Amino acid sequence: MFDTIKEECGVFGIYEPTRTDVVQSTYFALYALQHRGQESCGIAVNENGIIRHFRENGLVPDIFTAERLEKLGQGNMAIGHVRYSTTGNINRANAQPLVIKHVKGPMALAHNGNLTNAYALRREYELRGAIFHGTSDTEVIAYTITENRLITGSIETAVEKAMEKLQGAYSLVLMSPQKLIAARDPHGFRPLCIGKTEEGAVIFASESCAFDSIGAEFVRDVRPGEIVVVENGEMRSIETHCGGKSAMCVFEYVYFARPDSVIEGASVHEARLRAGAFLALEHPVQADVVIGVPDSGLDAALGFSQQSGIPYGVGFIKNRYVGRSFIQPTQRMRENAVRIKLNAVRAVVEGKRVVMIDDSIVRGTTSARIVNLLREAGATEVHMRVSSPPFTNPCYFGTDIDSKDKLIACKMTTEEIAKHIGVDSLGYLSVNSVRQIAKNANCDFCDACFTGEYPVEPPAEMPKDKFEKMIPKK
């Protein structure tokens, strides 16, 4: 509906010492991670070495009815996934977890991230006779692990060997008949953390907010390059690929993650407050009220208000019953899409000089429509402040910024963008400040979408639909 940067995927895994209702725990956790992907979802459960699973396009509560959860049954291990496609079309074949069956037994896999060498790997496998059912990077990862599993003595050794071949961003949770495994790429582009319960369950999740939803306790983050294996209730670590320079996506703190999550030791909520405070220092303005665009703009707006002394107000009401699948069949409905999902509170903005905080501007279309809502509600001035720097480069590690020609900051100056979206002034957070918003984080950051300084060599070309366009060479 909006021309905003889309969320990442969310992964989850749980190992219980005894057979229990791990499916229910996975369901609640995926509900907590729903913000990371609304296109598809899935759950795989392990009972006595038999893996049952279900995956489908749609939201968690719509797909996993009470009847569906009951059919999945019980077990002592389960993994789950919510998906937004950064590569691969929206179809059921690309939903996760993937369940692979081979001579050494079944494996279920859930993945968050984006491989930079997926195209080359897939072509290599296809030329050797492999058959792919979907168009996502995850299937390439599954083939790479399976290839190594056939010649190694354990699933964790296969993962370790596969990581020598995989390039780019991947946070994985996978399940074999006896083991639950988590793995994170050597740069740690995407978050992945470990939790536990008083009953002895070990849990992996993209964000710590998933632990809160099931009464679990945060233990630590999976280290970049680390493989964590849970077997017979015991957890052990393999650190063969650890020790490199970390590069957590800084946009996790700006937008992707839930504000109640803690990533790499830093509170997402506090990071957004700091982003807003930095904005107030870098781009001060005389105004009557500060408002945020829901949801990720709200914390930054509060930080701007606290730093500037300008009162904070609730300037927008968000309709939470309109999902990303909302259909806009006519031009008039497309034009009114913002009104349907977002509405200005006239009592807060009428006759006021308004500072509006949002997390980013991609193409500028949605920003212009939101600004128009404020104008129509009676705002006398609208000053927009953005809690991230301008997007000027594509992302190759799991965010759907895939072309400079879609980024307004590559076509216009800040002053031209301000005029284009109809604001009285516009200010972006500086690169120096965005690097400082998560001050307690135990990692370095990837900010290549703002700077063009990639932690690893980017591919020459990697379009979002790279697999759909694969044409065999004659």
From TrEMBL:
Q: What is the gene name?
A: purF
Write out the residues that bind [4Fe-4S] cluster. 249, 395, 446, 449
Alphabetized HAMAP family for the sequence: PurF
PROSITE patterns, sorted: GATASE_TYPE_2
Please tell me the species this chain comes from: [Clostridium] methylpentosum DSM 5476
UniProt-listed InterPro entries: GATase_2_dom, Ntn_hydrolases_N, PRTase-like, PRTase_dom, PurF, PurF_N
* Catalysed reaction, written as an equation: 5-phospho-beta-D-ribosylamine + L-glutamate + diphosphate = 5-phospho-alpha-D-ribose 1-diphosphate + L-glutamine + H2O
Kindly identify the residues recorded as the active site. 9 (nucleophile)
Name under which the protein is recorded? Amidophosphoribosyltransferase
